[in-house]
Amino acid sequence: MPDRDSTTGGVIWDDRISAYGRIVESQRRLHQIFDRSLRDNAGMSIVWYEALLRLGRSPDGHMPISELGEALGLTSGGATRLVDRLEETGYVERVACPTDRRVWWVALTDSGRTALDAASRIHVDDLDTHLVDRLDDDDLDTLNAVMTRIRPAHKASGTTQE
User: Fold this and answer.
1) Distance in angstroms between the alpha carbons of the first and the last residue of the chain
2) Is the Cβ–Cβ distance between 95 and 62 less than 8 Å?
3) What is the mean pLDDT of residues 83-110?
4) What is the pLDDT of residue 3?
5) pLDDT confidence band for 20 (50 / 70 / 90)
6) Residue 17 is part of a domain; what is its CATH number?
7) Which domain holds residue 65?
8) How many domains does the chain have?
């Protein structure tokens, strides 16, 4: 991609900066829309939804609390507080790791699975309305391919989400 610095009067107009800005702005706007919808229609935030979704997609419906926190970009304390709140609602429960007494897992409960399924139906409708319906099949394929290529480069540093 060409460096537009010499033709437009400054590096701030570089196409790479603009592309990144569009990614960030789109993500923020979609995050706000999806969060408001889930709060209004499912009684949970997008962060709660993502935590339940990750647990629901984990092989046995549970994972170490630290791993969940890392996946969500939370500190250890933030992950503990999130699990505390989800546990108070009955969506998750703490389970001792059978092989390491120092590790606690967080597991999805039946109530959590029900809430996740209901919220997922809402989220899919929102995705269709605010994302998928604005793209043709080729656009969606391209978006998925580009995001898939970008994502692994940052996984080792713990800066990516699934």
Assistant:
1) 28
2) yes
3) 94
4) 54
5) very high
6) 1.10.10.10
7) 12-130
8) 1
